[in-house]
Design goal:
Distance between the termini: 53 Å
Structural class: mainly alpha
Number of strands: 3
Largest sheet: 3 strands, antiparallel
Number of helices: 4
Helix content: 40-55%
Mean pLDDT: 79
Shape: elongated
Low-confidence stretches: 88-97
Radius of gyration: 20 Å
Length: about 100
């Protein structure tokens, strides 16, 4: 059987070739799924902040939400408004769980 090892340059070239294709495939697959909607406690856990930080962001208008009866749901994409680059905003820093 032939040796199937790749040198680092071949690996890098292969990664550069496949990356756009993988990104396109992931984007198409994820766009077909319904978007996640979190409760306030779930959103707080995902952002690593306290629930009052999420509620204050909603009250201040910095975070959009869906109200269904007495239930509040927050779309994951909206959470990026208070969690840019995967980090809580300045108001949420230091309140992590």
């Amino acid at each position: 059987m032939a040796d199937m090892r790749l040198d680092p340059d071949e690996i890098e070239q292969l990664a550069e070739t496949l990356a756009p294709r993988v990104a396109d495939l992931l984007e198409r697959r994820l766009s077909e799924r319904p978007e996640l909607a979190f409760s306030v406690p779930e959103a707080a856990a995902w952002c690593r902040v306290e629930t009052h930080t999420i509620r204050k962001a909603i009250t201040d208008g910095r975070l959009a939400c869906l109200k269904i009866g007495r239930s509040i749901r927050i779309r994951r994409s909206d959470l990026f408004a208070i969690r840019p680059n995967g980090q809580p905003d300045a108001a949420g820093e230091g309140e992590g769980r």
